[in-house]
Design brief:
The chain is of the alpha/beta class. It contains 11 helices and 14 strands. The radius of gyration is 42 Å and the shape is globular. Strands 6, 7, 8, 9, 10, 11, 12, 13 and 14 form a 9-stranded parallel beta sheet that branches. Strands 1-2-3 form a 3-stranded antiparallel beta sheet, with no helix packed on it. Strands 4-5 form a two-stranded antiparallel sheet.
Length: about 400
């Protein structure tokens, strides 16, 4: 619109002012419109892009977890303060761990092997183990043996592992009625030993007489068959020498060192046994002065002591409790009469004891009648819910209390 030169001055100013305001308003509206369009565009772009306005690389490395070895800074500082102490590596010290952040916000973890950091393996100390790998059951653990003039003798290992734990037959650990049956006298008769090894179930504990023959060979066969084994040591009975248990019998009235030497001779006959069982010995087991040094030596070697229960005057339980030796008592001799029918009745009685008390221990000798009856009865009793275990599972063990 042109300016009227003939109009009054104020009127021209008013017209120019009004035109300026109209132009300013139009320009402002235009800017607001453009701003709104820009904001809408940005909002749409942000909404379609979850990572927002930050634009990362297509893949962004977050961390290499192996650099921490699974330890906090405080733990590393504590380790540094103990330079002479053997330390376990962190759980991740043998792995290269890479975490990647993807465009959609997810994290992918990649593991690959690498050399350990040189501080040693990652390990968990679970303490002494119980039982032995069946593939190695016929061979002794050399860490549980010491050399002596009498031969190789059982000892507690440097880590506290006892022979009674290493050579124990593992049980299920389930709560229920448990019975341990020990068949002794193996090694005294070749045919009797062969019959017992061939017919008796692996759950039966076998007792080898220290005075027997070919004991190492029989021991290996028994261990390969899954049996826990005991060593039967001869002790002086009340009617000695008319009833003589054999060479190296431990006797009342002789020097304690002599008895310990005889004990060591017996202990060296075989390996891989969990403990000692008496062969006769009514008189010796009732004499505290003669018995105590022997029981102490048995306990020191990490062995258990099983009393066959034939002597009412035996002090093995009292002394074992006092000096902390794992021990047990047989509840019954099941073959005091060599009659198959009588033996089966005795075994039924043993089952009643076990059901009343939760467990029971029975002992027998490797006579043909005994072996035949026990093999049949064990199969039948197993179907009634009885669990047959190695004798080490039922002894009183101070370390487990």
């Amino acid at each position: 619109m042109g300016t009227d030169l003939n109009a009054p001055l104020g009127q021209n100013r008013k017209s120019r002012s009004s035109g300026s305001r109209k132009s300013g308003l139009s320009f402002g509206r235009m800017l607001l419109g453009l701003g709104a369009i820009a904001l809408v565009g940005v909002s749409v772009w942000v909404g379609l892009r979850p990572t927002g306005l930050i634009t990362p690389e297509p893949e962004q490395s977050v961390a290499d977890a192996s650099q921490t070895d699974g330890k906090t800074a405080g733990e590393k500082a504590a380790d540094a303060g103990r330079p002479n102490e053997r330390k376990a590596s962190g759980a991740l010290s043998g792995a290269h761990v890479e975490e990647t952040l993807n465009n959609d916000g997810s994290i992918v973890t990649k593991f690959s092997p690498k050399q350990r950091d040189g501080e040693g393996p990652a390990f968990i100390d679970v303490g002494p183990t119980r039982g032995q790998d069946p593939r190695m059951a016929a061979f002794p653990n050399d860490a549980l043996l010491e050399d002596s003039p009498e031969g190789r003798l059982p000892i507690v290992g440097p880590d506290g592992l006892r022979p009674m734990d290493q050579y124990a037959r593992l049980s299920s650990g389930a709560r229920g009625v448990r019975i341990a049956l020990v068949v002794g006298g193996l090694g005294l008769s070749q045919t009797g030993t062969q019959n017992a090894l061939a017919r008796l179930q692996p759950e039966i504990t076998l007792g080898f007489a220290a005075t027997g023959n070919s004991l190492q060979r029989w021991m290996q066969e028994a261990r390969r068959g899954g049996h826990e084994i005991l060593l039967q040591v001869p002790f002086e009975p009340f009617d000695y020498p008319d009833n003589n248990p054999g060479p190296h019998t431990l006797r009342v009235g002789i020097d304690a060192q002599k008895n310990l030497a005889e004990l060591r001779t017996s202990l060296a006959q075989i390996t891989n046994y969990t403990g000692i069982m008496n062969f006769l010995g009514g008189r010796f087991l009732s004499d505290a002065d003669a018995l105590e040094p022997v029981m102490r030596d048995i306990g020191r070697r990490g062995l258990l002591f099983l009393d066959d229960g034939t002597s009412a005057q035996s002090l093995t339980g009292t002394l074992a409790d006092t000096i902390g030796v794992p021990h047990g008592f047989a509840d019954m001799v099941v073959d005091s009469e060599l009659d198959r029918t009588v033996i089966l009745k005795k075994l039924d009685e043993l089952e009643r004891i076990a059901r009343r008390n939760g467990s029971a221990i029975g002992v027998a000798s490797a006579f043909d009648e005994s072996v035949s009856a026990i093999a049949q009865w064990v199969d039948e009793a197993g179907s009634r819910g009885i669990e047959f275990v190695g004798v080490s599972a039922l002894v009183k063990d101070p370390q487990q209390q």
